[in-house]
Amino acid sequence: MKLLTISFALCLSFSICNVKSAKILGVFPMPSHSHYTLGITLMKELVSRGHEVTFISAFQQKNPIKNLREVSLKKAIPDNSDFKKALFDLHEASFWEHNNFVMELGIEHTKTILNLEKVKNLLKENENFDLVIIENFVNDAFLGFGYHFNAPNILLAPGPMTYLSNYFVGNPSPSSYIPNIGSRFGSNMNFIERIKNLYYDTLGELLLNFKFIPGQNKILQSTFPGAPDIRQLIHNVSLILTTSHSSIHSPAPLLPSVKEIGGYHISKPKDLPKDLQGYLDDAKEGVVVFSMGSNLNGSMLPNHLKQSILRTFGKLQQKVLWKLETDLPGKPKNVRIVNWLPQNDVLAHPNVKLFISHGGLLSVIEAVYHGVPILGIPVFWDQEQNIKNAVHNGFALNLPLRELNENTLFSSVNQILYNPEFEKNVKSRQVILLDQPMTPMETAIYWIEHVIKYKGAEHLKSPALSLMWYERDMLDVYFYILLFFVGLCLVVKRCFRYLCGKLKKNVVKVKKN
Ligand SMILES: *[C@@H]1O[C@H](CO)[C@@H](O)[C@H](O)[C@H]1NC(C)=O
Ligand SMILES: *[C@@H]1O[C@H](CO)[C@@H](O)[C@H](O)[C@H]1NC(C)=O
Questions:
Q1: 80: domain CATH number?
Q2: pLDDT at 14
Q3: Which atom of ligand 1 is nearest to the CA of 233?
């Protein structure tokens, strides 16, 4: 009781209980709608809680929001359609090609953004910030914002923790049961897969340390003169917010400086446009929703594949709502093509029975949130792993792009539509996702304010950060123990020989006598 009174008094006098109004810089310049959604949703919430936000983004709100200043790079970011085309080819790339591509892309993108006039102007302004929140997406040189404004950096990882985010806070990721993001393995790996996984983890570390981080350091040094080596800034990150959750991902080790906020971007479903609402309401047999997300432009699918997909859909009893950038001639009556989909609001409709998806993390979370089973057509990065986890949890089937044809699609769709297990399993995951002590958004805000309040939250930093990689993995100790035993063996062997020799001599002596 006394303690309560004291802390209450402290609250009043120093207002340490909550952070009143902080100045926050958000850095989310990925030119992709899903990434923008992650950023703007969080920024709006921060503003609604009294903070003042400056937001570097790749798009722009239609109507300005009070206390939210958007530094929109919409017109300045170069066209990325070539890159989008390349994404479809990634489903056949090797681990090396895939990861090398992502890192080169990251270096290119980071350089481009930091060289834009609007960003340079912001750095020249006499601004002060209490905190910087960066979307962590192969862009480490952005940590320079925190350095420049002398403010703590928080990272928001648009996915589960991977070897591209663990190193900031020293989060452990054992190769034995945490599949590498580029491995395409699910979480129950057999012996051979574990060997391969160790290989991927090692290769990833090498790429990271010898290619990616030096590349980012170069950008950091040229944009923020006087900055320390990037590794110092990397190990000074205060917190990582990760958009995973154990209802969707396999449980993984997470340090106290890593918080799971998967699903925070989902808000209450909004009203649908009238015609879409009518279309879904009238679908007595149910609706199949098909979308490859916002980065994969479905118009780039080969024509014969699109025709196969249309023929398959034509055979279904259900209606099909397909998000595709261009309309297709000769589509069957039950198929409707839209070039934009309010996905979260549509998935919330009770008539939606199946979601055919590329398996992007946000899509998987939204599907679980609304209890809709998934047919995954993964293409790149974390997608295959997201889907494999979903398959493992019993609410999805995996149909990689390379195996997609009329037969496989038809049989997979029907399996999910007519086997109630899929729906049952996704509903049980939905309950787990929704049953949390604080909503994912409340968790995000709580920890963001925690970092502001404790000026970088030094107390959350892991001692792992001060160790070399071989010390962290105990390799030096194992090596020492190995040496010790080898030495011991040698000594024992020597003694044994000596004793044997003595014994022989004695035996000979005895015989002689
Ligand atoms: C690390 O972060 C703290 C607080 O956020 C800051 O005071 C300190 O200067 C930073 N150190 C470096 C090397 O950037
Ligand atoms: C998708 O690609 C088509 C043609 O290849 C193009 O016209 C369209 O603008 C692209 N859409 C998006 C959203 O990238």
A1: 3.40.50.2000
A2: 46
A3: 14
In a domain, 55, yes or no: yes
| 321 and 446 share one domain | no
Overall residue count recorded for the chain in this entry? 513
The pairing of beta strand 374-376 with beta strand 352-357: parallel
Tally of domains within the chain: 3
Match 């995973």 to its residue by tokens. Answer: 244
Pure H helices in 300-405: 303-314, 343-347, 361-370, 383-392
CA of 234 from ligand 1 middle (Å) equals 10
Q: Do 158 and 91 fall into the same domain? A: yes
The arithmetic mean of pLDDT across residues 82-90, rounded, is: 66
Domain identity same for 209 and 302: no
Average pLDDT over residues 150-175: 95
Closest residue CA from atom 9 of ligand 2 = 325
Q: At what angle do helices 95-114 and 213-223 cross, to 10 degrees?
A: 0
How much is the pLDDT for 90? 67
Which residues neighbour 283 within 8 Å (Cβ) at sequence distance 6 or greater? Answer: 318, 319, 351
Nearest listed ligand to the Cα of residue 233: 1
- Residue range(s) defining the domain that contains residue 489: 468-493
Q: 380 CA distance to ligand 2 centroid (A)?
A: 19
Least-confidence region, from 98-102, 193-197, 437-441: 98-102
Does residue 509 lie in a domain region?
no
Predicted TM-score (pTM) of this structure: 0.87
Q: Residue 110 half-sphere exposure, CB side, CA atoms within 13 Å?
A: 29
The pLDDT of residue 382: 80
The pLDDT, as a whole number, for residue 197 is 95
pLDDT in tens, 447-486: 999 999 999 999 999 999 999 989 998 999 999 999 999 9
Q: Does the CB atom of residue 233 touch ligand 1 within 6 A?
A: yes
The CA-to-CA distance between both ends of the chain, in Å, stands at 93
The CA-CA-CA angle for residues 155, 159, 163, to 5°, reads 75
